[in-house]
Automatic annotation (TrEMBL):
Native organism: Paenibacillus elgii
Enzyme class: transferase
Keywords assigned: ATP-binding, Cell membrane, Kinase, Membrane, Nucleotide-binding, Phosphoprotein, Transferase, Transmembrane, Transmembrane helix, Two-component regulatory system
Catalytic reaction equation(s): ATP + protein L-histidine = ADP + protein N-phospho-L-histidine
Known EC number: 2.7.13.3
Name of the protein in question: histidine kinase
One GO cellular component, as annotated: plasma membrane
Single GO MF descriptor: phosphorelay sensor kinase activity
Amino acid sequence: MEAQHQVNRKAARGWRFFKSVCGICVLLLLSLASWSAAYFFIRYLLNAFGSRPSDYVGQLFTQLVAFVTSMGIMGTIGVIFRDKRMEVFRPMIDAMKRIAKGDFTVSIPSDERVPGQFGELVESINHMAVELNQMEKMRQEFISNVSHEIQSPLTSIGGFARILQSDELSREERMHYLGIIEKESARLSKLSENLLKLTSLESDHHPFERRRYRLDKQLRSVILACEPQWNDKGIDMDVSLEDVSIEADEDLLSQVWVNLLHNSIKFTPAGGTIGVRLKRNGQQAVVFVTDTGIGIPENDVTHIFERFYKADRSRNRSTGGSGLGLAIVKRIVEMHTGSVAVQSVHGKGTTLTVRLPALPSAVAPK
Ligand code: ADP
């Protein structure tokens, strides 16, 4: 493909050179013709009027008339060719106008009349339209996902608020419905918090303050902070942490561990086990968060880091997530030049592995 492009570019350059040489020849012929015409015309006029001026004056008149004639001819040719040149630009101008109006489906057909460098311009415009079209699709998909995520809690809040207006409800029923409204409001608030966080993280303007600290200590404190949740479900915590230090934004990474642990707790049935392991592997700190939960269906595994993606949607309704947690995890880990991967067996359990650059032991803080 690239070789073909090069051949085309060479041919276009050769063709341009040939046209330039022809252009110069035509200009020379035109000057010659105008000069000759002017010479004979002036001689004819002088003869007609019986005038015999000096050689100098004769030459002067001839030059003047030749100049005016050649200018006239070139001007006419220029106007004709300018219209022709504009014809080449017309599809590009039209395409740009359509793009400016938000129509990104434009595609300028590649035409051999388009000279070399303009051929590249056509390709660039087409490429830009494809990219903009893709971004527009992503924007629409994003709006539809957000609307959908907002719509379902709002519907249930509205429904239960209507039921609560009835006087015939017992105190228990009233408390039950109020509890649901509270839960759905918390879900909406979490959704907007996550959306704001993700947008901020993706904007490149999010505060990012690296400092050196012990990753094992951070993991231990996050596990302890989540104790009420895993304890409530009778989940067994299997923790094994080597002393590893990293240089990172502590708050951002804390969000990573919270999201991973919350997912493991959420998707692991009561009585299951969650393992958190930290190992040094050469220059890397490797964190494994393993659970004996519901696992992820094979087809969904590659998508779970996408925004709003939820595997097993029917099951997910009850867990109340919005599908943003792992997108946030991925973004934060990538900001630290690390990577995150998932391994899962549906029905058996899941392991999320985060790799981050580790500090050499010699410079690690105590
Ligand atoms: P959510 O807020 O829905 O948990 P996430 O982005 O954190 O959003 O996760 C996306 C999806 O990946 C979840 O809806 C779930 O289907 C799946 N998932 C993530 N972690 C686990 C896990 N530990 N076990 C099973 N499924 C998981």
